[in-house]
Amino acid sequence: MHFLASSSFSSLVHPTQAVEAATATVVVVVAVVVVVVAVVVVVVVVAVVVAVVVVVVVVVVVVVAVVVVVVVVVVVVVAVVVVILLSPSCSGVTSQG
Where is the signal peptide (predicted)? Predict the structure, then answer.
């Protein structure tokens, strides 16, 4: 009876098993930390890429808007100049001069 109790007690607190359990715990903790850090890095990279894409889209929209405004202004100015040059009052003034 004493032998059985001592053998079961020694198997419970065997130093090698304790070291193995501690090592396994450390490995699991390190693995979880590595996975969490990897997920955070991926999320940050995706957020940065999305932000860059949004900035590029906004810049393209602004550039297109500026080009459209410039084209409209040029068309309006050309139309006004053509109307002024082709108006009868203007041609009459030049013919009288």
Answer: 1-18
Q: Considering the entire predicted model, what is its pTM? A: 0.51
Q: What is the pLDDT of residues 51-69, one digit of tens each?
A: 999 999 999 999 999 999 9
Q: In this structure, what token pair is assigned to residue 9?
A: 């007690």
What 3 state SS string does the chain have?
A: CHHHHHHHHHHHCCHHHHHHHHHHHHHHHHHHHHHHHHHHHHHHHHHHHHHHHHHHHHHHHHHHHHHHHHHHHHHHHHHHHHHHHHCHHHHHHHHHC
CA-CA distance, 30 to 35, in Å (whole number)?
A: 9
Domain boundaries defined on the chain: 2-96
